[in-house]
Specification:
about 300 residues, alpha/beta, 8-stranded mixed β-sheet, 10 helices, globular, EC 2.1.1.163, UbiE/COQ5_MeTrFase, methyltransferase
């Protein structure tokens, strides 16, 4: 799907005229759309042996991280990670849903349904779906909150956001905004704006996870809840070894055959292994201010749903 002439600004699905989301405190910066920017700079980047430079919302500037961090199993400069992750998801965006079905044998749909059931979302509520990508959760939330509620589908990657926007517009979701935003800052959104904040299979790709959790806490209303659906650590050792074999053998092969991109899916497998385990993530949520935190293992701990409240 082409990104030509797409601006990283807030849009609504009810009209072609651009309209400001009620949750924004400031407009998002204008810039060249990712797909267009890659095309314009592709020759220079290839010559320099570097990755394309994507127009991304700025991240947090904290002392949480050192000069280096991990990108899968590789150690890279912290400032480079967001660009490298952008390259991965720009590459996989068009095949993302198909690959999810193949890689999980369709079970990801059950994981998401379980998370939605835990969300406690009700009619009239305000929901922020971070790293919402192709819009699986946002589509359901749009129906659940109804005409008096509102959903914001947010992603740092414009290619993914474009796919989600097209899907939800085709589905007639008229109560959804689409916002390009960085999870580390959630800069466009005002304090105490949302009843529910969710992030599904996106937190492990965030460079500064502590900053992201603090931003999620900030934009939640008192009494609101955070729901994190993410790959985690299998709880049974024999199962863990079989899972490793599948992840590092089958996933890159499927990525090569279906999406013509084995390296992106190798990174995705590595990023899962580098993500904090269930207990560590729960402690990080508590450090960000969340209370009554818990988690629920699914499929033997391959995936976990973490939940916390802003009281």
């Amino acid at each position: 799907m082409s990104n030509d002439n797409q601006n990283p600004t807030t849009t609504t699905s009810t009209t072609t005229e651009k309209k400001t989301s009620p949750f924004l405190t400031e407009s998002l910066p204008e810039g060249i759309a990712q797909g267009q920017q890659q095309t314009l700079g592709q020759t220079a980047n290839e010559a320099a042996g570097s990755i394309p430079k994507y127009n991304l919302p700025r991240g947090a500037k904290t002392n949480n991280l050192g000069e280096t961090t991990h990108f899968g199993y590789k150690t890279i400069n912290t400032e480079e990670k967001a660009q490298k992750v952008a390259e991965v998801f720009h590459s996989v965006a068009s095949k993302y849903d198909l690959m999810n079905d193949l890689m999980s044998f369709g079970i990801h749909r059950l994981w998401k349904r379980y998370a939605i059931n835990l969300s406690g979302v009700r009619r009239g509520q305000q929901v922020l779906d971070i790293a919402g990508g192709t819009g699986d959760l946002a589509k359901v939330f749009s129906r659940e909150v109804g005409e008096t509620g509102h959903v914001v589908l947010s992603d740092i990657n414009e290619s993914m956001l474009n796919v989600g926007r097209d899907r939800l517009l085709d589905a007639g979701c008229s109560n959804v905004d689409f916002v390009l935003a960085n999870a580390e800052t959630l800069e466009p959104f005002a304090d105490n704006s949302f009843d529910l904040v969710t992030i599904s299979f996106g937190l492990r790709n965030v460079t500064d996870k502590d900053a992201a959790l603090q931003s999620m806490f900030r934009v939640l209303k008192p009494g609101g809840r955070l729901l994190i659906l993410e790959f985690s650590k299998p709880v049974f050792e024999p199962f863990s070894k079989l899972y490793d074999l599948y992840s590092f053998t089958a996933l890159p092969i499927m990525g090569k055959i279906i999406a013509n991109d084995s390296e992106s899916y190798r990174y995705l497998a590595e990023s899962i292994r580098m993500h904090p385990d269930q207990g560590t993530l729960k402690s990080m949520m508590q450090n960000a201010g969340f209370q009554n935190c818990d988690y629920h293992n699914l499929t033997g701990g391959i995936v976990a749903v973490h939940r916390g409240f802003k009281l």
